[in-house]
Design a protein that fits this description.
single chain; 846 residues; Maltoporin, Chain A; 22-stranded antiparallel barrel; five-stranded mixed sheet
Amino acid sequence: MSRHETKRSERRKPPSSFARLPLAAAIYLAVGSAAFAQEATPAPTPAEKEAATLDTITVTSQRRSENLQKVPISIQVLGTEKLEELNVSDFEDYVKYLPSVSYQTFGPGFAQIYMRGVSSGGDGNHSGPLPSVGVYLDEQPVTTIQGPLDLHIYDIARVEVLSGPQGTLYGASSQAGTIRIITNKPDPTGFEAGYSLEANSVSHGGTGHVAEGFVNIPLSEKAAIRLVGWNQHDAGYIDNRENDRQFPIRDPDDVPSWGGVVSNRDCTSTDLLLCTGRAKDNYNDVDTTGARLALRLDLNENWTISPTVMGQRATSNGLFAFDESVGDLAVNHYYPERTEDKWMQAALTVEGKIGNFDITYAFAHLKRDDETDSDYSDYSFWYDTLYAYGGSIYNDNGDFINPSQYIRGKDGYKKTSHELRISSPAENRFRFVGGLFWQNQRHDIQQDYRIDGLATDLSVPGWPGTLWLTKQIREDHDEAVFGEFSFDITDKLTAMAGFRSFRVDNTLKGFHGFASYVIDDPDNPTDAFCADPETPFMNSPCVNIDKELKEHDTIGKFNVTYEFSDTKMIYGTWSEGYRPGGNNRRGSLPPYVSDYLTNYELGWKTSWMDNRLTFNGAVFRQEWEDFQFSILGANGLTEIKNANQARINGLEMEMNFAATYNLQLTAGAAFYDAKLTENFCGLTDSSGKPITECPVGVINPETGEEFEGPEASSGTQLPVTPKFKGNLTARYLFNIGGFDAYVQGAVVHVGERTSDLRTAEREILGDLPAYTTADFSVGIAKNNWALDLFVSNAFDERPQIARFTQCAESVCGNVDHAPVPGYENGQIYTVTSPPRTVGLRFSQKF
């Protein structure tokens, strides 16, 4: 299906000793090989100190090595030194310094990233839309449905952040932008090693540590290996406080119910008192262990092969949100909450020349396995309190039982990609980059909603105690041919045109539902019956969904760049990005198709004062066409529809200033006006086109029922993204007692955001207030060692990253019904960043 054909015609386990071996090996080699270390870099001379200047930053964002100041893209770069100076160790550490990036997260490894205001706030479900921001590790994409890999940031050359559609070179899921994490590569020219040891303490929480090391070993003049290892323990700071939850007691002759008490204390259980013993302070701790082994082999002066194997395991406990009705940094939960995120990626890059043309082949295979335990008892409590849900939950004896649910999830990802690319010489007046891309993603989904003691006739066949089961295979396949062509019209004026022709084939197959879905009952209104209940599917009862969507289209890009001088240029860009469509689980719903983002941008790159000051920026308008939006439908099934249109106007700016040799200032700011341009009714017509006119009381021609009015009116602000986000960092170097020393301060401000696109849900959840955080650090260094003391979130702020409920907001949010004692404002969770953290780090390089 082509967009032009359709649209235009219509309009964790604890780390084992073995897991620490790569880290131990890296540190041992680093320390044990000190005798081979090179001499420390001599201190700068007085003349060098007077010549304050900014370093030249090289990037590969356009698939070539280029000076950042010559690249006509709104791009921000955090290099090795900057990452170390900002004490960056994971995604949340660096994303706060990126004005164009917003995010939501529900724990390590489950971040949903948004750029330039392109956010509906409804991503992340395993049967939902693909991400709108692509994340790359070196040459390979590492974006999965529920979020990109949460890679530990150590021995990283740089993080490149490309704002705006990057569809021509980076393809699917780079609709709004691309984040590239570039690792340090093996170097045959010399030995290098280093390690870092850190201890830290979290206010209102526990203590943590980080140990990491690397070693670069030349094997010959043409070969080298690089081994990197890390082990990190993040202290918990959320308390699961002791609590007894009383389920409603009803007249059994009226509405039968269990009417018992669930307690998270350590106590003795009885028929009407269930003790789970889950109360614990600082229960959201995380342990992360990983390693990277890379080889570089120069076959000759033209060809190099670089295989890499990298893996990480992160085990997290608890919930990374708090319940304001319980208290600051506190919850009352009753069932296991734990995630183990394990992944390994094997990659191969081959680089060479044929004549004057550069050839690059990049292969990657990613295997990621997530196992999660989630407390889902809020859902049971609220539906029992308001709608007597517990009156239908019983055991094999017919006795009513505790209806509390918990979830055991397993998500298995396999992602394989191939890219073959050719580039003409960069110095040619006419030059190009082009290639072929092939990718296949397979997602094995298992979501097991359990109730202890559940009757056999209520349990999904073959799954005792399972009230609801999702057991599906999702495959997202895409292929593309792409290219960008540049021509120097004059020595100052360059024009570039690019395209990407793609086709996608996405399928969803398997089982989802209750036990009743297995039996074909004409009186049951569900549309997910088992067509063949005698044929199981991957140890689930049957196949009750088997859907496929195929699409093909071409997107484009055009850019004009004018250089006033070697240090100043402006550019204008028209570009498109896309996100592939997919299949809804509900059989009666049509698939959702690709949505598109069109960008109109005017930017500038300038350097001043003999390269002591750079000032870059861009103004833009983006049109988001028929964007994919997720809503919670009947039985809690996510429904995705091409729901509406939006427009984002924005301004991004970045400044770097070497004020003196000793003082360097860095600042970034972004301003966004992201709004709907038509009403959001939450409905589509029979052809999948959004319905944007739905006045209250008017009959819906599709259903014959009255409209209830738009869920969000034209002009409504898009969620998650603030109207303003900015940061300022100052670093001052000085000498004291023969030591090189520094003091640094960094301030980040994030403006107010809305929590949901829909008006009613937003009023329940409330807006996300503006916040400002500050980080400080001081340190000394001499020869090859350094000692740093840092304070993150120095004033112990509570940034609100996201707000959510476990069930429909109108139910768990407690708006349209009488207050429940203890939950007068409903049960709403707030995701926040870690409280004030003080750390001490010793590092050494050879």
